[in-house]
Structure formats: C-alpha cells, structure tokens
User: Fold this.
Amino acid sequence: MEQDVNLQTFSMPRIGDAAPKFVATTTQGQINFPSDYKGDWVILFSHPADFTPVCTSEFMTFATMENQFANANCKLVGLSIDGLYSHIAWLRTIKEKIEYKGMKDVEVNFPLIEDITMEVAKKYGMIQPNEDSTKAVRAVFFIDPKGIIRAIIYYPLSLGRNFDELYRVVVALQAADEFGIATPADWRPGDDVIIGPAGSCGTAKDRMEDSELDCKDWFFCTKKISKETILSKILKK
Assistant:
C-alpha cells in the first residue's frame, strides 16, 4: 500500500497526454478542468504556499501580465495546497499592501484553486517529496485548446519563474501549430524558424533549391517569417 501511495505522489502526466480531469473550488468559483477551457490555451501552475514572498512576486507578475496572455489566447489557473479563505486573504493583502518592481494595487482575477487534499497536485505530479512533502513545487503546464499537455516546466521552491519565457513558450507553441515549423534556440517572433528535415534525397534536393529557405545542409533549413505575420495569426484582433 505504501508503494502505491509513493507512486501516486511521484506520478505526473507527460507531454502529449490529455490533461488530467478534475473539479475544484477556486477564488473565482467552481471549475471543471480542462473542459471549461476548451478552445483556449491554458497555463496551469502551482505555487508552494500563500503568504510567501517568492509566490507573491510571481502572482503579482502573472496578474500584471494576464491581459498579455489573454491576448495570446491563453488563460491562467493557479493552485496551491491552501484553503479558499487563505487564498482570498492573501490576494487581498497583495492588492492592499504589497508593492514590488513598480507593481501595486494588483488585483488577481484569474482562478486560484483550493487543494488542501492535494488531489489535484498529486494528479499533476506537483508534489516532489525530496523537495517538500507538504508543498507543491513551482510547476507549469501548457495545455492546448484540445486539452493536451504541450509543455511542462518545473522549478524548485527557491526559484521564481521567468515570465518572459512562459509567454515565449505560449507564442512559440502556437506558431509551430499555425505554420508547421519548429523554433530554434532563443526564438522570438520575427526570428528565422526551422523547417523540418526532408524525408528523401529527392525532396532534400528540391528543398535546397527553394528560394525561401536558407539550407546549410539537408537537415538544417531555416525560413524567414515576419513578426507581423506570426503575431497576426496568434494575437487577438
């Protein structure tokens, strides 16, 4: 029995899996996940605890960037192993008392899940016992409009997240879907994109002769897609 509990604690969904389903109480009412978010990209993320400084800086940043994520068709859903009233009190304190990097009077409008039973955190492998057995690590799940997990990032309790990177991932995943491309290291909209390797010598030769491609060899071809073209397909009008 103990072995089963440990397996459940360590289990986590993988990239390409359907996002585990759950119904939860949040600061914005009950949600049925991921069905309530069908048609939208979602960032589901966990934080270790309410009334902690790193988490506070992160929530202020998420809340400040919420419209930016929304404009990229992405909604935010937070979680910690705290009760609803703790969540409400903490978010009120953030709005009324905390100022950080020019951010103040910050109101968090996206849902924050109550998970005192750790049910959701265990489904998503957010409990890492060697880091902490009673707090969730800083997990980030990027879930597409079909409810499929497309990317996962984990941070330890001591390390705050890079929010420019979280936004970059959302845009890059959508660009890959929209244009059938891959994105190279440090890619930003407007940078060259990667075109996948050809499947045969014949198509490789054709590809090398494509005037729109810059092919260094059969396996390494890039193409220019303007920032405006990328963003016109991703950002809301």
About this structure: The helical segments are 2-10, 53-71, 84-97, 119-123, 163-179, 201-208, 227-234. The two ends are 54 Å apart (CA to CA).
